[in-house]
What we know:
By secondary structure, the chain is an all-alpha fold. Helix content is 48%, strand content 2%.
Amino acid sequence: MDWEARMRAALCAARGVAHLHTAHSLAHGNIKSSNLLLRPDPDAAALSDYCLHQLFPPAPARPSVSGGGYRAPELVDARRPTFRSDVYSLGVLFLELLTGKSPSHHASMEAAGDGVVDLPRWVQSVVREEWTAEVFDAELVRMGGGAEEEMVALLQVAMACVSTAPDARPDARDAVRMIEEIRGGHGRTTTEEESEGTRGASEEERSRGPSPTS
């Protein structure tokens, strides 16, 4: 996937989570890359497997391992997923798109000597040493395309989403807004664009004055 495809996937995932949270007051509970379904229309990726956690009792979890690396730290005590834990999982998904690394791989393997066992903590350790360029997927770097600023911006969004303090995380709507801003407004809905176009046309007509009568 090139950078544009990854950005579209990130935006679609965030929009799906925001829709569940705001329109239905439901937590997804199982956000991960295998539940993000890509479609021929690049703007129509969809989240699957949502809210099935409500049908089953929560299973005991171990830190860094349960959920394949997507599970928020506060869910270790087997509480039900929340909007904030969904945002954490969404942030891990963003990191996966940026790094090309599997969260489950990092969750199950300790890094040599420093005890880093999950993707967010690994990224934090690299950024802390000011080696930010080392975070990004080598395939993205090879493709180039001048997307470095957007990659860094999405990394900042992802790191906010995976904050260990739930209250420090943005909500899903804020994540959508931030990603749309990174894309330079390309994430606006067709309705918004049409309404702006209509408003602009009306203002132009008013500036011309009344049309001559026959």
